[in-house]
Design a protein that fits this description.
Distance between the termini: 19 Å
Number of strands: 13
Structural class: alpha/beta
Shape: globular
Number of helices: 7
Strand content: 25-35%
Largest sheet: 7 strands, mixed
Strand order of the largest sheet: 7-6-5-8-9-10-11
CATH topology of the largest domain: Rossmann fold
Order of helices and strands: EHEEHEEHEEHEHEHEEHEE
Radius of gyration: 21 Å
Helix content: 25-40%
CATH architecture of the largest domain: 3-Layer(aba) Sandwich
CATH class of the largest domain: Alpha Beta
């Protein structure tokens, strides 16, 4: 039986959960899973329902009624087949650990994405990724060519039909225009807790300060560098015996883990933007 996912967000008010339940009942839909949250600070309501219709399909009349109900509730909503894979484009520079974590997760069917290509601003990793048999796009970036390079990136997004762009240790800052074009569908990974230890050699900075916890943060990309809505964070306790090299090695694992969690949550339609923050439902 094919399941579907309904996501909905709207201004909060009394009776929303009951309205959704009655809607599903009218169309003879079985609710397999339901997550809801009402944020008292923003006054927004968020819901994610996993359901199936009487014949394993979303009933034809359901979307029509949702259009009507959505207008009444001033809601943003969408329905996705739960087994539908999100087309993802990976961007890399000189580190391959994050991209390989995502590719391996996709191959094992733990991550519901279809990787449609890899973009890099240099050729360093081309051979490393050859065994994945994926389209490889070399788009060099310099200060003078950045506008043309970003235009080519957007072309590749369109050509591949990518629904999601993942900066898997892509060491180039996207322009405000590119961030706007990719708003809500571009995820980045950042070492440490944002916004700590910005710039070059972050683990060496952390070592010099004697930190006792390191981590990684995955977030949506916005025009504010490394300050977009946070999706996932992971940490690990360390001690005085850790060298910068030890921290870099541990950081690679944390970065891959955090990015995997973020991409998985996005692909499973579990994330809602909420006034600069995120609501991330458990499965």
């Amino acid at each position: 039986m094919r399941e579907h996912i309904l996501t909905l967000s709207c201004p909060d008010r009394v009776g929303l959960v009951a309205s959704l339940a009655r809607l599903m009942e009218r169309h003879d839909c079985f609710i397999a899973s339901s997550r809801t949250f009402g944020d008292p600070e923003t006054g927004r309501f968020f819901a994610r329902l996993v359901f199936h219709g009487p014949e394993g399909m979303a009933p034809k009349g359901l979307e029509a009624e949702l259009n009507s109900l959505g207008g009444e509730l001033q809601a943003d909503w969408a329905i996705h087949p739960s087994d539908e894979k999100v087309k993802a484009l990976l961007l890399v520079s000189k580190s391959d650990h994050c991209a390989n974590t995502l590719l391996y997760g996709a191959r094992r069917k733990e991550l519901p994405i279809e990787v449609v290509g890899i973009v890099s601003n240099n050729k360093t990793l081309k051979d490393n990724f050859a065994h994945w048999n994926l389209p490889w796009f070399h788009v060099p970036v310099t200060k003078d060519t950045k506008p043309d390079a970003e235009a080519r990136l957007i072309e590749i997004v369109d050509e591949t039909g990518a629904d999601l762009v993942v900066l898997a240790r892509y060491m180039q800052v996207l322009s405000d225009e590119a961030c706007r074009r990719l708003e809500g569908r571009c995820i980045n990974i950042h070492h440490s807790f944002l916004p700590g230890f910005k710039g070059a050699r972050p683990y060496h900075q952390a070592h010099a300060r004697g930190v006792k916890v390191i981590g990684a943060t995955a977030h949506y990309v916005t025009g504010d560098l490394d300050e977009g809505p946070i999706i996932a964070q992971v940490t690990e306790v360390i001690d005085h015996t850790y060298s910068p090299a030890d921290m870099v090695e541990t950081g690679r694992h944390l970065e891959g883990n955090a990015l995997l969690r973020a991409v998985k949550a996005h692909a499973e339609h579990r994330i809602f933007i909420n006034d600069g923050k995120t609501v991330v439902f458990a499965r």
